[in-house]
């Protein structure tokens, strides 16, 4: 747990045109006060857990059969990523499975890049788990679209190099 928890939720959830507060959005999942009800909620809460470095939450919500040796220690070794924003591209759910495609933007040395992935989720005993994902090529915003770093500027006037 970090002590400096953000006020706005890192996942970027908007409710009725207002950015959701962390305490009203992903925090209850991180504290195990409630369970994500959809694959997208789990995906968002996992992104927020990456940002806030809550590694045990990431392990708990990653299906045990798919961890492939991943541990909180390994996550802690690689937690210096400077995350910028989460962009949900699509999310769908069947009864006990779901798929969420997203881009998670981060700042590289002097550039921005994204993890573009379609993640698979499974519902077991009323809990959603991340199982695995398929990585794709990052799709950058168009020049006149909003920058992914949440500056409020157009991409061409901001992080476009
Ligand atoms: Zn959130
Ligand atoms: Zn930017």
Automatic annotation (TrEMBL):
Stored InterPro entries: NTF2-like_dom_sf, SEC_C_motif, YchJ-like_M
| Domain YchJ-like middle NTF2-like residue range list | 38-133
- Which SUPFAM superfamilies does the record associate with it? NTF2-like, Sec-C motif
Superkingdom assignment: Bacteria
Q: Sorted alphabetically, which Gene3D superfamilies does this protein's record hold? A: 3.10.450.50
Q: Report what the protein is called.
A: YchJ-like middle NTF2-like domain-containing protein
Q: Native species of this protein?
A: Shewanella hanedai
């Amino acid at each position: 747990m970090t002590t400096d928890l953000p006020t706005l939720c890192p996942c970027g959830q908007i409710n009725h045109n207002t950015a959701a507060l962390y305490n009203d959005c992903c925090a209850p999942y991180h504290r195990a006060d409630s369970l994500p009800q959809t694959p997208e909620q789990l995906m968002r809460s996992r992104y927020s857990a990456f940002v806030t470095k809550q590694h045990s939450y990431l392990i708990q919500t990653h299906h045990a059969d798919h961890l492939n040796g991943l541990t909180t220690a390994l996550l802690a070794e690689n937690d210096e990523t400077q995350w910028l924003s989460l962009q949900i591209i699509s999310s769908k759910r069947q009864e006990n499975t779901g798929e969420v495609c997203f881009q998670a933007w981060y700042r590289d040395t002097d550039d921005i890049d994204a993890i573009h992935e379609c993640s698979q989720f499974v519902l077991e005993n009323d809990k959603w788990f991340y199982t695995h994902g398929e990585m794709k090529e990052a799709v950058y915003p168009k020049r006149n679209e909003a920058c992914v770093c949440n500056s409020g500027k157009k991409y061409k006037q901001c992080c476009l190099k």
